[in-house]
């Protein structure tokens, strides 16, 4: 018990140190460096990527040989499906790591690390700090879950199932230490399948908070109208006071519009990663959830199948979080338009002969924003349908349909 208390205190201290760092992606950097995704030096990125891809190709070759051997000598059985599902994860891991393009990642980090927009407000600083802490806790939770899953896998599945051993022509190679090392390496590489989603979720979470701050900033346009209400309601208008109003309103609107454009541009760049990733995420999860549920219905919960339960939960949770995050960002984007519609500009923004050009420019800018926010940000599954909570429901239905097909094939003896 004392060990757990000390470990908890150390984690709290570590969390506080990360929270004090000005870089919101400090823990993100450490983890991506461990997987060769991000380094400051390009040469180190190349070496780490090369090593990771070589490791992936070796593992894929190893499991491909197992598939060939099973098809040639044992036929269609549980062992073959275990190897096929693991091979599917390994291939999906390689594909996910290839689309996680480093230059785009660096540019997004640089943009999201800039906290100057509305940084003078204490509420915004607190909100950003809370998001940073939430992201750090999420990454730690994912790492702890993967370590626990790796411990269960290496302690139960690797020693007792040849499907997860280093074998050649059906015979294990090496002793116990070799098999443990092979199991740990397989877990390390396979964990990247989940880790890359964690990276994408962290970035989406920061985008969500920045979009939320922008919505609040648009809502503060009313403060400008309230500030000058007595001036407009008065019988006499001062030219200097009126100029001050138009300049302040113009600067406030310009700041918000520029931030809106920056967010849309960076989200558009992020879609170059999210599009291919969502395609792999959707179809990969669709197959794996159905297959692992098929395993559970046939063999129940045992010490060998408990690892599949954990992986099913991870796949469902990450698919839900991914679709939910995209939905929130699109809702916030649409809320910018609804916030503008609820403001007093359409009643208090009055035409002025002396400042006619400013009047027309501001109305034009507001109408352009209203039109832009009526269209959702096009996050698509690589061009095949929009990412939303409806897509998550489709994923669950598709997995259930595929599971039903597998059960029917089993009953017919295929």
UniProtKB/TrEMBL annotation:
<dbReference type="GO" id="GO:0005549">
    <property type="term" value="F:odorant binding"/>
</dbReference>
<feature type="transmembrane region" description="Helical">
    <location>
        <begin position="138"/>
        <end position="160"/>
    </location>
</feature>
<feature type="transmembrane region" description="Helical">
    <location>
        <begin position="78"/>
        <end position="101"/>
    </location>
</feature>
<feature type="transmembrane region" description="Helical">
    <location>
        <begin position="280"/>
        <end position="299"/>
    </location>
</feature>
<keyword id="KW-0807">Transducer</keyword>
<keyword id="KW-0675">Receptor</keyword>
<dbReference type="GO" id="GO:0005886">
    <property type="term" value="C:plasma membrane"/>
</dbReference>
<feature type="transmembrane region" description="Helical">
    <location>
        <begin position="180"/>
        <end position="207"/>
    </location>
</feature>
<keyword id="KW-0716">Sensory transduction</keyword>
<keyword id="KW-0552">Olfaction</keyword>
<dbReference type="GO" id="GO:0007165">
    <property type="term" value="P:signal transduction"/>
</dbReference>
<keyword id="KW-1003">Cell membrane</keyword>
<keyword id="KW-0812">Transmembrane</keyword>
<dbReference type="GO" id="GO:0004984">
    <property type="term" value="F:olfactory receptor activity"/>
</dbReference>
<dbReference type="InterPro" id="IPR004117">
    <property type="entry name" value="7tm6_olfct_rcpt"/>
</dbReference>
<keyword id="KW-1133">Transmembrane helix</keyword>
<keyword id="KW-0472">Membrane</keyword>
<feature type="transmembrane region" description="Helical">
    <location>
        <begin position="50"/>
        <end position="72"/>
    </location>
</feature>
<protein>
    <submittedName>
        <fullName>Uncharacterized protein</fullName>
    </submittedName>
</protein>
<dbReference type="Pfam" id="PF02949">
    <property type="entry name" value="7tm_6"/>
</dbReference>
<feature type="transmembrane region" description="Helical">
    <location>
        <begin position="305"/>
        <end position="323"/>
    </location>
</feature>
């Amino acid at each position: 018990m004392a060990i757990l208390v000390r470990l908890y205190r150390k984690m709290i201290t570590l969390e506080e140190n990360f929270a004090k760092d000005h870089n919101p992606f400090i823990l993100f950097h450490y983890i991506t460096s461990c997987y060769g995704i991000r380094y400051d030096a390009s040469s180190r990125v190349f070496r780490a990527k090369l090593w990771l891809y070589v490791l992936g190709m070796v593992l894929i070759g190893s499991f491909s040989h197992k598939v060939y051997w099973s098809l040639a000598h044992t036929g269609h059985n549980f062992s073959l499906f275990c190897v096929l599902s693991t091979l599917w994860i390994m291939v999906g891991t390689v594909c996910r790591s290839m689309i996680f393009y480093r230059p785009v990642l660096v540019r997004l980090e640089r943009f999201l690390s800039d906290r100057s927009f509305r940084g003078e407000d204490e509420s915004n600083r607190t909100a950003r700090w809370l998001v940073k802490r939430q992201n750090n806790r999420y990454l730690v939770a994912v790492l702890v879950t993967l370590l626990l899953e790796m411990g269960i896998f290496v302690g139960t599945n690797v020693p007792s199932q040849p499907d997860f051993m280093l074998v050649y022509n059906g015979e294990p190679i090496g002793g116990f230490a070799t098999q443990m090392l092979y199991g740990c390496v397989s877990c390390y590489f396979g964990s990247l399948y989940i880790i890359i989603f964690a990276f994408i979720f962290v970035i989406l979470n920061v985008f969500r908070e920045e979009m939320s701050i922008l919505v609040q900033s648009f809502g503060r346009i009313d403060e400008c109208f309230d500030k000058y209400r007595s001036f407009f309601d008065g019988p006499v208008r001062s030219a200097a006071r009126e100029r001050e109003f138009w300049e302040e309103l113009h600067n406030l609107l310009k700041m918000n519009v520029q931030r809106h454009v920056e967010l849309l541009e960076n989200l558009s760049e992020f879609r170059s990663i999210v599009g291919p990733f969502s395609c792999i995420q959707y179809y990969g999860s669709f197959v794996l959830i159905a297959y692992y549920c098929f395993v559970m219905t046939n063999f129940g919960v045992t010490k060998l199948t408990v690892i599949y339960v954990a992986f099913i939960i991870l796949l469902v949770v990450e698919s839900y979080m991914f679709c939910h995050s995209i939905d929130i960002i699109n809702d916030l984007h649409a809320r910018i338009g609804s916030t503008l519609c609820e403001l007093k500009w359409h009643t208090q923004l009055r035409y002025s002969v002396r400042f006619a050009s400013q009047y027309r420019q501001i109305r034009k800018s507001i109408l352009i924003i209203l039109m832009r926010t009526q269209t959702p940000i096009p996050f698509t599954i690589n061009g095949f349908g929009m990412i939303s909570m409806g897509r998550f429901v489709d994923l669950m239905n598709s997995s259930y349909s595929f599971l039903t097909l597998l059960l029917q094939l089993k009953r017919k003896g295929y």
